Amino acid sequence: MRRMMIAATACVLVAGLVATAEDVKPAAPVQPALPKAIQPKAVQPVQPLPIRPIAVTALKMAQLEEDFETVEAHRDVKKAHVKAAEVGVRVAEINLDRLSRLASSNAVAKEEVEKAKLDVDLAKAQVEIRMAELKESEVKVKHAKKRLDDAKLGGVRPPPIIRPVEPKAVDPLPQVRFAADEKEIAELKAKLAKMLVAVDKATADVKRTADLVKVAETELAKRKDIAMRGRVTADFIATAEAKVKEAKDAQEKATKERKMLEVEVAALQKKLKEIEK
User: Fold this and answer.
1) Spatial separation of the C-alpha atoms in residues 140 and 144, rounded to whole Å
2) Distance between CA 127 and CA 88 in Å, rounded?
3) What is the pTM of this model?
4) Could you tell me the pLDDT band of residue 140, with boundaries at 50, 70 and 90?
5) What are residue 56's DSSP bridge partners?
6) Which of 62, 129, 168, 225 has the most beta carbons within 10 angstroms of its beta carbon?
7) Tens of pLDDT along 190-223?
8) Is 209 in the same domain as 240?
9) Is residue 238 part of a domain?
10) Is residue 162 pLDDT above 60, yes or no?
11) Dihedral of the CA atoms 61, 67, 70, 75 (nearest 10)?
12) Which domain holds residue 227?
């Protein structure tokens, strides 16, 4: 009996140990900590490098100055053309007003008044053309000035050092132009450009005075035609003749000035060719 109790007790203990072992679960494996996400570094914007002005040679600087002065002179010529066109408008309007008054008293035909109106329209169109040419010259002056200012910021580049080279017996000696010659050539070219602009201006003056002569002669012819009808005052013809003489004198003066300028231009061109040989 005692043995049976011991055996039963042993069975109970074994069953309890087995149940305890089943209740205890193995611990879950520890997962390693993941590293934090790497934050990208802030990218600094790339600063553009400052643009340094490029130095130019003395000859290039002189050429840029010459170009700027030339386009400026051409602009002045265009301004003179605009003024001449505006004078033409005023002359046409005065002629139209005179003919309109004469037409009111049946002194001239209506066709003359219509023609005078067309002359006014034509003169105004010439003003618009000259204004457009002036605007084009203004643009050229603007860009030429910018190129010259940029070159002045860079400065003048020193001339390269020319090392003497031993010439071969059969080769001719190299011709080296001196700095003084280059300076003289640049000065002559600048002076020649100014003279050419002056010639253009004188040509414009000749054309303008020729137009004034035509207007004055036309006016004189009309007054003589009116005088044939006996409806004019004593100084009606004399005033027109004086205007014709004044216009012809101005035309002759402008023609002489243009010829003198053309002679000076020819002399400068000849001298420049001799130096550049």
Assistant:
1) 6
2) 9
3) 0.41
4) very high
5) 156
6) 62
7) 887 888 888 888 888 888 888 888 888 888 777 7
8) yes
9) yes
10) yes
11) -130
12) 179-277
